[in-house]
Amino acid sequence: MLEAREAVKSLHPYRPPLAGRTGLRLDFNESTVGCSPRVLARLRSLDSELLARYPEREPVEKDVAAFLGLDPAQVLLTNGVDEAIHLLCCAYLDPGDEALIVVPTFAMYATFAEAEGARVVEVLAGDNFAFPAEELLAQLSPRTRLIVVANPNNPTGSAVAVNVLIQLAQAAPQAAVLIDEAYFEFHGETLIGKTLQIENLFVARTFSKAYGLAGLRVGILAGDARQMEMVRRVASPYNVNAAALAVLPEALQDQEYVNRYVAQVLSNREKLQQELRNLGLLYWPSHANFVLVSIGPAHAEFVQALRERGILVRGRHSDPGCEGCVRLTVGSDGHTETLVIALREVVERLRLGRGLRNGVRA
């Protein structure tokens, strides 16, 4: 009888709540306005000949490398950041190795590491989700072969200082250190240039958030050229589809569109946080395009009440340290105004936030 490997049988499957996502989608941190019109125009121009051919990734990787100020040998385009994580696990993890992650964070880090038979060592974030640098360093061992840090982190929105991440990478030269910068555009700080000097440092980026291309599944993995050659050995030569490769240069060239949307999100993130303060709801200041809010025992009712008003938000109650929490994606001006009006109604209905003078977590 055929059976999967023990490491696979013991995995907890990640099943995002995708079914029935009708309404204002503020649950998955997607762009609320979509991609650049230039991207749409390029999509509409695609012909049957392009779709009949296997996609060529390398020419577009050169464009992306030039945009990032890197050598093309340092850049690999991937099927979203998910594949970038998967490839690093394939390239560097053997059964019995250890992977360090700080929780709460993106669930797929642990899933891909455990699928390789590695032992995942979870380090709980500190008070108010502070990055536990000392605790993480204390967990380093000769078996540590992968360390993953989301910066900014999902679902908390917290960020880590660049010098702390550099110290971490230098302290574990035997480990691949991945900094997941999926929300870079909303934070503005990056380590991607340091991949030129630190051999075990990798940085991932995505076009799913600020660029509005989540449906095309395209991301970036950058690192030292010698190490990236190892990663390429476990990557499919046709991992990114032809449509994504065709529109990516247009997306990169229309930085005016991306910057305009990012500016809206940054402004509306502050407006939303101010509204949460006014409502007396506890939240954590964010460096991403979402805000994590503490609702308490009524968290499920809160999510459902917003759904009834046509707004989808994501409950994070099951994440470590996030009991009673809900994540709210920040979008355009109009979408944020819609969310704020609904929040006022739901908070009043559920009698939330009463008696609190200041909602922010210091």
In short:
The chain is α/β, with parallel strands linked by helices and 362 residues long. The chain has helices at residues 6-9, 37-44, 48-52, 58-68, 80-92, 108-115, 133-138, 162-171, 225-233, 242-253, 255-279, 299-308, 333-350; strands at 24-25, 75-78, 98-103, 119-124, 144-150, 176-180, 201-206, 219-223, 282-284, 290-294, 311-312, 314-315, 325-329.
> The biggest beta sheet, please?
7 strands, mixed
Mean of all residue-level pLDDT scores? 95
Which CATH class of the largest domain applies here?
Answer: Alpha Beta
Query: CATH superfamily of the largest domain, please?
Result: Type I PLP-dependent aspartate aminotransferase-like (Major domain)
Number of helices: 13
